[in-house]
Design a protein that fits this description.
The chain has 265 residues and is an alpha/beta fold. The protein is built from 9 helices and 9 strands. It is globular, with a radius of gyration of 18 Å.
Length: 265
């Protein structure tokens, strides 16, 4: 890999990668719609709005691999989700195709499968059960990644990210937490392993895991952190709404929910 593009580089996870991947590859191209710090040695900084196909095409030129963190990162009204996570995503994959990009690491989300009950452990073969408009856009992105992997030869690495923060802050994160160091480890696997299309979970090696992440381990991912060290501080921090404590998606379930909790499969 000579030039690696990171979209959403002004965000929390983009900032982590900017710091931790510095010097790992000859050039990091950093992109965001927001303003960023000036380029340092081995960096290129590009302002880009993902909904603008022309800007995206220019951003992708000369790139070997993309770590796609850009777009809307939480639940939002449909117009915002559509522009950022649907239109913007298609623009990115089309720009990558035209530019001859070899790999795209897509930051999908556990919310693409958030409507599974917590009584069930799921793995990379779990079919989409999105819990929100945001989760639905991520499920769409996984299918886009599949299509471009097998139709156009762009290797796809879909990371169903759990809760990526410096430390877990509630009981749910005792199994969804993804530490920053483990996040960087997973990205390095996605950039360096050989594959055509894979789905993995962005999660640390937590004692209370409800996701079988053996597919990521098979590819070389070796997480070192475990949320259990924070258990006494946070295991009492559960959600007020019963539906949020019932499903993998947590508090993405209850907003706008008008269904029957008993019918959630």
């Amino acid at each position: 890999m000579n030039r690696v593009l990171i979209t959403g580089a002004a965000g929390a996870l983009g900032t982590v990668l900017r710091q931790k991947l510095a010097g790992a590859y000859p050039i990091l191209r950093l992109s965001d719609a927001a303003e960023m710090e000036p380029a340092r040695k081995g960096e290129e900084v590009v302002r880009c709005e993902l909904s603008d196909a022309g800007q995206v095409d220019a951003m992708c030129r000369g790139v070997d691999a993309i770590v796609h963190l850009g777009g809307q990162s939480v639940e939002a009204p449909w117009p915002r989700i559509m522009q950022s996570n649907i239109v913007g995503l298609v623009n990115l994959y089309e720009g990558a195709r035209k530019a001859g990009v070899k790999k795209i690491l897509f930051a999908t989300s556990n919310h693409a499968v958030g409507f599974y009950r917590r009584t069930r452990t799921i793995d990379h073969t779990a079919n989409a059960r999105p819990d929100s408009r945001y989760g639905l856009s991520k499920a769409f992105g996984e299918d886009v990644s599949f299509y471009y992997a097998y139709k156009h030869g762009i290797a796809g690495f879909c990371m169903r990210i759990g809760s990526c923060f410096p430390k877990p802050i509630n009981a749910r994160m005792l199994w969804t937490w993804h530490s920053y160091p483990d996040f960087v480890r997973l990205v390095r696997v996605g950039l360096e392993a050989a594959y055509t299309y894979e789905i993995v979970y962005g999660v640390s090696r937590n004692t209370r895991m409800l996701w079988d992440n053996s597919n990521a381990y098979r590819l070389g991912y070796d997480p070192r952190d475990d949320a259990e060290i924070y258990a006494k501080e946070i295991e009492h921090q559960v959600f007020d709404n019963p539906a949020d404590n019932l499903c993998h998606g947590g508090n993405f379930i209850s907003p706008d929910f008008t269904g029957d909790v008993s019918k959630i499969p």
